[in-house]
Amino acid sequence: MSKVTIKVNDNGSLRITGDVELLDGEGNVYTTKPSFSLCRCGMSKNKPFCDGSHKGNFESQVRVPKEE
């Protein structure tokens, strides 16, 4: 089984890559591809998937805290 990765894109979506099952709140399975993006801004008309609505309207650049 391959490792699943989730990348927090600057000013955009969460990019999911790998063998993962995406479920809704009732446990129903979404159809996904081997790589897909989830909405982080709340503006997508295709939630939970990203449709690009965030472009120019959402700012977030999350970074891993550096250990001292």
UniProtKB/TrEMBL annotation:
GO molecular function terms noted in the UniProt entry: 2 iron, 2 sulfur cluster binding; metal ion binding
SMART domains, per the entry: ZnF_CDGSH (SM00704)
Keywords carried by this UniProt record: 2Fe-2S, Iron, Iron-sulfur, Metal-binding
Signal sequence annotation: none
InterPro entries, per the entry: FeS-contain_CDGSH-typ (IPR018967), MitoNEET_CISD (IPR042216)
TM stretches of this protein: none
GO cellular component, as recorded: cytoplasm
Iron-binding zinc finger CDGSH type domain: residues covered: 15-60
Protein name (Swiss-Prot/TrEMBL): CDGSH iron-sulfur domain-containing protein
Taxonomic lineage from the root: Bacteria, Bacillati, Bacillota, Bacilli, Bacillales
